[in-house]
């Protein structure tokens, strides 16, 4: 009986695993850097999970990506059609480098709290010894002993406090540097985007998709160099670009383009005015400017003068309806 339960349990796990959509492995092919953003072109080979003619597949975008800018295209000869695309935020899975940075920051934050506790204790000790200066003594010898004790302890506590404050400053500087490195590697967001595609007409195990999207947290700065050469009576001028990105991905073997102008993108369609349908009124032209025009009649809907079209029909596209 135990063996049967074990078998059924593992079979359920396998079935559930097969029913879940599998996230595709994407490869960055081309990057176009703008001053404060970038356009990413990727390709992915997906294995859609199909049931009753509908197939589901998943692609993942980095946290800084704008999901509304996503444009997915299929091969020209493909019979597959994208029926729907849904966006879902997911938790970012840190790679080894990012996880190590977070671990170092956490360790430094813990050390910083420990130093803070020691500083608070030293401040309390200093306040205690400073309060002893008002204490009354019976003899001059006792006064000398008290003054010596106060001086030694205040001096010791001040030196220890100065050492801790110096170390505190180094800790804060290290945390700031690591945080900047982490922001460059993974950005400020902790959620990525999962795009769930619904496909139709697919009878293939593998489909190649191409898609583009806009990505924040990337950009470039121009670097100019002017070098005067008096002996040659010439001036050398060079122009370079300093680029950065915080997608959390390693761009390897990509076509890198640098653009000088930020693109103007309006992903939202303009507002559509209300469509008002009502009977049309015809007015008789007046011969005199003083006589108001009078309505002749309300046009009959069956009149030959009114061309009636077909009833409005909704046409569903990928991301909007007409």
- DSSP summary, beta strand count: 13
Taking the alpha carbons of the first and last residues, their distance comes to 59 Å
Principal-axes shape call: elongated
Residue stretches low in confidence (pLDDT < 50, at least 5 long) are: 1-23, 291-307
Describe the structure.
The structure is a single chain. The protein has helices at about 1-20, 95-130, 140-185; strands at about 25-35, 40-45, 50, 55-60, 65-75, 80-90, 190-200, 205-215, 220-230, 235-245, 255-260, 280-285, 295-300. With about 325 residues, it is of the alpha+beta class. It has 2 domains: about 1-80 and about 200-270, no CATH class; about 95-185. Strands 5-8-2-1-11 form a 5-stranded mixed β-sheet, with no helix packed on it. A 4-stranded antiparallel β-sheet has the order 3-4-7-6, with no helix packed on it. The radius of gyration is 36 Å and the shape is elongated. The protein starts with a helix and ends in a 24-residue tail after the last strand. The model is unreliable at about 1-25 and about 290-305 (pLDDT under 50).
